[in-house]
Structure formats: structure tokens, C-alpha cells
Amino acid sequence: MFGYPTRKAAEDPVGGNMKRRRPSIGIVLGAGAARGWSHIGALQELVAMGVVPNIVVGASAGAVVGGCFAAGRLEQLEAFTRSLTKRRVFGLMDVSFSGGGLIGGAKLRTRLEESLGGINIEDLPIRFASVATEVGTGHEIWLKNGPLIDAICASYALPGIFAPVRWGGRWLMDGALVNPVPINVARALGADKVIAINISSDVLTRGTAIQDPLYFAEKAETGVEAGKKSGIMGSLSRGARLFHRPFAGGEDGVPGIASVMADAFNITQDRIMRSRLAGDPPDVLITARMTKIGLFEFHRADELIALGREAARKAIDEIREHIDLDPPASASLPAPSAVAAR
Fold first, then answer.
1. Catalytic site residue from 24, 60, 130, 200
2. What's the pTM value of the predicted model, to 2 decimals?
3. What pLDDT, in 10s, does the model give residues 109-144?
4. CA atoms of 18 and 231, how far apart (whole Å)
């Protein structure tokens, strides 16, 4: 824990008044690939407001930012993201045609280990958990102990793109497959009040069933052209160009393998996310809207961080309804992990 210690309820022997325990605050960071950089700005803005979290939970990109935040490495992550260019992003992608993914992930893992290597989750100054999915069973796995770097890499292992991660005899992949905005995990860890940040609400529109094939044929070409400009298809198309030509679509408009896998994944994620949020809503839901930024545009950190700050700022009134904010001067980012400093 950091910031303010949790105070147990105690009775005042003089006045008979009951001192209320400070509610435990949990922040949940949702999945969203490159859009996850917006979590950096949102967290910075929340802390500046006086929101001092006791618990941080993340899925996929949210696990990357949340893990760095919990370890006191958010500033280093911010500097890294702002340094990314299209060329540097491409340089981190070690494309491989063997193994469990198109990208080996070794280069990206090496960069993360420079700041997070040797840190265990249980040694962090605040409680942290990431969510992953077990290959073969589909079990939702909560990673609450063990190496932080493994918990992060497992949570963002997009199926077919990044190779799965071995963890305690299990092969794990992206947690967004089963729980894109893991509010229930934060509550299970003891959060009384939960602030969730959803960065994928505008990636897809609400699904519908099209029963008239003639209507579908008339609209298909228009839909594809619109998708190339914005939304999920636009981001996938732009992202595919970061890979070699075999991953791009054919000249006849057939989507490439990377686009098909990622699109199928995000459709599934969107449906699960809507269902989860409806069944277990957070106390405060911050929605960052960034339709014009693709899921693979990791080089646009400056814009994304600013959008995250703006989204958190807009939610200030709702936050005040549920949480007694501390004076901004007393709220601060967590100090670097003692383990990391060794």
C-alpha cells in the first residue's frame, strides 16, 4: 500500500463516535493495444486529483501500464512510449514463422526487463494483479504472485500474434479474451470503490444480425472502405503495414492473416466487455474515446497520454460522488519498488 494507511474502524472512547475505515480504492485498466498508453495520462491525472489507489488491476495493455505504475516505473514507461516512432516500433517486432505467434516478443520483453526485471508482484508497494487466459481450457487466470514481467507478458500475449507465456505449468495468452476490463478482480482483492478505465468502447459498434444477403452485398463495399479509414479495420490495416507484405491483405481485398486474427479477437473482446460491464459495473467508469487512433499505432503516445488525461478530468464530478479525494499535494505516484532498486 502507499499514500495513506488503511485505518480499521475504531470506536472513540470519549465521544462514542465511530471512526470510519478509509475505503480501499481499486483502479482497473482495460485492454486496448496501443491505446493502452492513454492509461498513463489517466493515472497521472487521477493521482493529481487526489485519488490514491490501494489496488491496481490490468488486462493486456492495461497490465503493462498498471504493472509499471505499481512498481513505481510509470515515468520510465512514459519516456519510453514518447520515444517510439514507426521505425522503432517496427524494430521491436521480431517477426517469426515458428512458435506460437507471429512475433516472438523477445525484444519487447528485453525492454520491459530493463525496468521490471527481478521484481515479484508480492513485493510491490501496492496490490497488483493481471489477467490472462489459459491456452486449451479458456480458464481465466489471475496473476497475483510471482515475477511481474511474466504476469505482464502473459496478459498481453495476443493469440497468434505474440507467443504464449509459460507460467507454473500453464501456457497463458491475452487476458482480454476472457476479461477485458477486470472489475471483479479488483473487488476480489478488497477494493471498496472501483474506478475502471475503458479504452475500447468505440472500437466496434454494437453487433447486429444482417438477415438480407442483398442488403449485405450492397453495404459490404461501403463498410470496407469506411473501415479502412477508422475503427478496428482501419487500425488493423495500418498495423498490418508494420509487418511484412505476407501479413497484409490480397489485391482483391481479402484481409490478411494478421487482420483476420486481430479482428476476430477484438469482436470477441467487445462482446465480452459489454456483458461484463452490464453484470458488474464499476463505481466510476472512465471512457476514453479515440476513434481516430488505431490499435497498433504505438508511436502516437503523445496524443494518447493527453486523451487519457482528458478522459479522467471529465470524470472528476462522478469520482467525487463516490470517493473522498485527498489533497493533491499529499497524493503521489508510488515510489520505485525496493526490489527494483537493488
1. 60
2. 0.77
3. 788 888 888 999 999 999 999 999 999 999 999 999
4. 52
